[in-house]
């Protein structure tokens, strides 16, 4: 199996040549943007040849629940997609409820998964943030207000990434009481958090392997119920307990309640983390082991091998592949998302 990650130019009349390039070299083409779309708005529709002229198996992956608003062109090329997935439960629901196509299911992400035998017996009093710095992720509303109190109790935090909310939070009067070292922008203060900026995945993985917990507080809006991302569940592969909103787990998604610690407010974050600290070999270990059972089948080798077999079988036989999905069945009712 040969896998390549490509970024092809298709402007200026290059779309047809790009489609031919893909068709002549690959059996399966996976489109990994948030949704199919051109790079610029306008009347030019030549980019659609990347779908209509590709003769390989075409697999589209959706991660944006607002595709109707921001990617209306999706509906012009949906007939040229062989298989469609959502990257999480909310994205899959948006495809089905939006009347786009019958989704094949929720795509199983491939992850680096470390055997529990390699987990550290003791963990540093640190919490990791590796999600987007966007308001809807909940950093500023949930984790940020909890950090001064956590710092007073000996906790530290590693905040990876960068984005719009970084600049919004930098304007707040509590910045210096939250951030001690800002390696991304030099806005140093006296708080317990280190802002690392964008770093290689191996550095984030190292942080997971050392820390007690990692956080994602997506889900304040009903539209984002079940909208977990890679960074939501990736820490599970390193024995790092995930702390998230109740709206991110079952029944809104396929994440089982026993695999995560739940918090919807700054006060709950403090209580949850202190609980993990008080019982590291009990409560923390039980959560980590349950999370490992959830993510273990999502190891990179297992997932990529399974997807390749199913997609290639469809490409060779001209048949619809069986969905390589989670057990989550998207609701088509009006109460989807709870």
Helicity level:
25-40%
Largest sheet: 7 strands, parallel
Count of discrete alpha- or pi-helical segments spanning 4 or more residues:
13
Uncertain residue ranges: 316-338
Distance between the termini: 41 Å
Strand content: 5-15%
- Estimated radius of gyration: 21 Å
Mean pLDDT: 84
**Shape verdict:** globular
Q: What is the N-to-C order of secondary-structure elements (H for helix, E for strand)?
A: HEHEHHEHEEHEHHEEHEHEEHHH
Structural class: alpha/beta
Largest beta sheet: what is the strand line-up?
Answer: 7-8-6-5-9-10-11
The tally of strands reads 11
What does it look like?
- The chain is α/β, with parallel strands linked by helices and 338 residues long.
- The protein has 13 helices and eleven strands.
- The strands form two sheets. A seven-stranded parallel β-sheet has the order 7-8-6-5-9-10-11, with helices on both faces. A four-stranded parallel β-sheet has the order 1-2-3-4.
- The longest helix has 18 residues, at 300-317.
- The model is unreliable at 316-338 (pLDDT under 50).
Summarize the structure.
The protein has 338 residues and is of the alpha/beta class. The chain has 13 helices and eleven strands.
């Amino acid at each position: 199996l040969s896998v390549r990650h490509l970024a092809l130019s298709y402007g200026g009349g290059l779309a047809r040549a790009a489609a031919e390039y893909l068709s002549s070299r690959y059996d399966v083409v996976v489109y990994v943007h948030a949704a199919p779309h051109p790079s610029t708005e306008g009347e030019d529709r030549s980019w659609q040849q990347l779908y209509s002229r590709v003769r390989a198996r075409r697999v589209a992956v959706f991660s944006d629940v607002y595709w109707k608003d921001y990617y209306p062109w999706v509906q012009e090329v949906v007939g040229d997609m062989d298989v469609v997935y959502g990257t999480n439960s909310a994205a899959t629901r948006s495809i089905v409820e939006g009347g786009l196509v019958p989704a094949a299911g929720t795509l199983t992400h491939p992850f680096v998964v470390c055997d529990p035998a390699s987990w550290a017996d003791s963990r540093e009093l640190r919490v990791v943030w590796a999600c987007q710095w966007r308001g809807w992720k909940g950093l500023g509303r949930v984790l940020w207000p909890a950090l001064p109190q956590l710092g007073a109790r000996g906790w530290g935090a590693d905040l990876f990434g960068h984005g719009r909310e970084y600049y919004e939070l930098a304007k707040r009067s509590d910045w210096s009481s939250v951030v001690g070292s800002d390696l991304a922008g030099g806005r140093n203060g006296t708080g317990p958090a280190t802002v690392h900026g964008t770093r290689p995945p191996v550095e984030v993985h190292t942080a997971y392997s050392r820390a007690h917990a990692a956080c994602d507080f997506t889900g304040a809006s009903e539209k984002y119920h079940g909208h977990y991302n890679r960074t939501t569940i990736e820490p599970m592969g390193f024995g790092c307990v995930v702390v998230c909103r109740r709206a991110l787990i079952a029944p809104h998604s396929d994440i089982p309640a026993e695999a995560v610690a739940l918090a919807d407010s700054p006060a709950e974050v403090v209580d949850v983390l202190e609980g993990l600290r008080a019982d590291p070999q009990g409560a923390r270990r039980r959560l980590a082991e349950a999370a490992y059972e959830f993510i273990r089948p999502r190891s990179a080798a297992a997932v990529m091998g399974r997807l390749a077999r199913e997609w290639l079988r469809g490409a060779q036989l001209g048949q619809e592949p069986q969905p390589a999905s989670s057990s989550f069945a998207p609701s088509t009712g009006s109460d989807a998302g709870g």
